[in-house]
Write a structure and sequence with these properties.
3 helices, 25% strand, globular, five-stranded antiparallel sheet, alpha+beta, Heat Shock Protein 90
Amino acid sequence: MFFEVKDSDALQSALSELCSFLAENSIPEDCVFDSKLVLYELVGNILRHSGGVATVHGAISGEFVELKVFSSSPFVPPEKSVCSEVYAESGRGLFIVDKVCAERSYTPDGAIKVKIKIR
């Protein structure tokens, strides 16, 4: 599965295609939801904070949904995520990604790679 996301309309399309792909491969609904949430947060951050284009590669690998997200502009989120204050209007996305994913790492070519456990 491959997506190129340039704007919010393309993000919505990518989310829909991701959900269809996972459903067609009999991935449980809770894992589809988690995967959609993670993709939305990672790609949304690239669109908001780097002004670049996000490229997404996704696959089902064993017991995991794996997503690799590349940014056309340099964008590397912090290694460690922290949740924002209760009344802050932003700053929770990476924290949510880390809570949902079994693993978040970086590939040698600069992609953010996440693994979401299939339950």
